[in-house]
Design goal:
single chain, mainly beta, five-stranded antiparallel β-sheet, binds the ligand Nc1nc2c(c(=O)[nH]1)N[C@H]1C(S)=C(S)[C@@H](COP(=O)(O)O)O[C@H]1N2, binds molybdenum atom
Amino acid sequence: MSLPGKRADMIVHQTEPINAESAPAPLAAGDLTALDTFYVRSHGPTPSVQSGSWRLGVGGLVGRELSLSLADLRSGFPQRTLIATLQCAGNRRQGFIAVREIPGEVPWGPGATGTARWRGVALADVLRAAGLHDGARHLEFLGCDTSPESDPPQPFGGSISRQKALAGEVLLAWEMNGEALPAMHGAPLRVVVPGYIGARSVKWLTQITAQAEPSDNFFQARAYRLLPAGVDPDAAPTGTGVQLGSVAVNADILDPADGASVIAGRLSVRGYGFAGDDRRIVRVDVSTDGGAVWQQAQLLDEPSRWSWRRWRADVELPAGPAEIVARAWDSAAGSQPRDAAQLWNPKGYVNNSWARVRLNVEP
Ligand SMILES: Nc1nc2c(c(=O)[nH]1)N[C@H]1C(S)=C(S)[C@@H](COP(=O)(O)O)O[C@H]1N2
Ligand SMILES: [Mo]
């Protein structure tokens, strides 16, 4: 199975809707993730949007409702460019599924994340033009795709707080790595909410609504919530569990890939760490003995304060079966729990347990 515009080695979990993650090696190759490598996470079919007739509506608790064409956005507001990492809250879910099954959810490995240079306008500038009322505490985004996951089917949506929306880093973007936003990534316009779970970066954006409460859209009120382990997600009352926003500190190993065969001796290990909002990755520890002894990885420079941080370490491995584990620390002194089993939750979000790759080391 291969997808138009994507590398043949993408790991395609589904084609309808499109759910595909980057293979580890090309994801590890650079700070920026190439368009043909970037993961795709969609909850419904890719809508075909005519960018000429497309308009963005801004309404709700605002002084002035807006209806903006792409040309209005490009000429009416300062254009901004920003490097930011997107990471699905379901990234690394595979580690949970190994503990206990999670029916109906995509079994993502380490590749439901990517980093791009986005260009567009600041959401804050558009909201200033509309004039937010004091009571507007949340900004809801709606796409024009229809997801059969909700009953009845509804467009994908979600919201962020007023504070985050006005912070300046949230973009309404039409360009990704210097090219027009590809259809499967949300053309003609998407939201990019740096430091938040990918689900808040609504693709195929058509409506922004200023409101008093968080969005009651299925993907905010019912999905993308951290539920206690014993809860049945379909039966739980709306609003159960923790609404996800800012990304928890996380890391994974991309090279060598889990299950690879390598030659005994010195081995170079590469991976990424990522922490949401204003937290940065400040240390990454690597161990070849299950965490009894740690060595510190070499951190590469981040391309921006909103991006992941890549790292590398050299380890020595004798022949035989081996396991390499890694954990990152963020600037709030937070780190990662050891086991996925302790974090298992019914929808399989936020697996930020230690990164683990099992290797077959040949003499
Ligand atoms: N309209 C719409 N926006 C969406 C989604 C979607 O299904 N529909 N998926 C969200 C999720 S869960 C993630 S992780 C990111 C993925 O963005 P990408 O496909 O460009 O990588 O888009 C978000 N925005
Ligand atoms: Mo996601």
